[in-house]
């Protein structure tokens, strides 16, 4: 066949083109005939097992030949496709589909480069399209020649930049300063800027760079998304003592900068600050945000409570609020002088790493009846009962719940049960680093506050179930439920049928899904992190497969199809 002939790149002559097209026609006809024959074979009855087996073998062989024929056709057909005759706008669209369908950023970088190596025509088409080069991840080593070449090729199109240390090396302050100097002529048309650096010195250089731009009367910024993450030790801060030593950044006498030099950026919609602080008093107004993400900031360096409330009040279209060990400074427990701010479009709420006294009061500063995705992370070691009691009925439209490194002492278990029961639409639960103590809350009848009667004593013992509680007005069982002997028992979250699990002991996970199935509300699908799947032995994995219809593997941080669908539901 022609597809097996050795081939050296060259311009095809007219005779070669005719031969290739004839060969393509023959292969296509052969493929269609093979497919028709396979359909006939599938309809042919078999009189006994021996004939059925021979019949299946013939079908398998025909299918293999059909696939080979089709692949040969595809290989040959594209040799004569008139790619160079396509209008430039169509060719550019094809190239964009190729580049933006890359499964990961590193592969996307390789594909963009490889397209410029195919031919002069494709190189011209790729380089002349500035939108192919405006999304840049600085993954090459300093002085970042490849990435800066992408910046030049992007022309004046809006830039989406990501600058971060690699696993093998941390960028020095000098290297980052040189990069920022090269980016200065393009700063005014950066649309997205994501910074992830380990050390304080380059972080401060970035903040100074942005502040100086605003103070020096430069063209206004068009930035829509700004993220700055200091990925180093969260306990090291300029001017503070850590482990007996005061930390002072090298060559940085100033460590407090106003964001953007105090210049208001009306286009800014997404703001993330992680392990970094700014001069909130002189920072421009942050309003009309759709994302506010504050993480790992000491309380005294967070935005003052009035400023925090001003950001929320001036962002009525806020869709995501993430507070991870950071929130309003001052004393947020004093809420009696403030009315709750309405956030009707808030769909995603993340609460993590807060001391128990602050959790309830922070949530009290706003109402968000349409939250669909709630994350509770690292709430353990203290009494979070008042927080969970305050949350009862506050977010009734939750469909996705993430519980990460969260425990449930026996004295707050009734409160947690009532809280779970107040989210009747919960369908998808992401569970990570949990123990029996909080998972048992999913196995109690919220009306009687008793373990589901279908659970056998051995199962109750494995969960360490405690059924003698001290109740209050909120958690007390319903007397009519206790008196009705014919009443059908129920569980919290009757729609919960999809789990995503990470870093949970296999035995705990297996018993949990077994218990939910025994109680009549089985888990239908589970996504398991890759790192966790290797910890399952054969019998345990078989037990899980018997209790779950679908078992899938997922990368940590990746969104599943069901998660996307639930978030997009009205």
TrEMBL record:
**What is the source species?**
Lentinula edodes (Shiitake mushroom)
**Domain of life the protein comes from:** Eukaryota
Task: Report what the protein is called.
Answer: F-box domain-containing protein
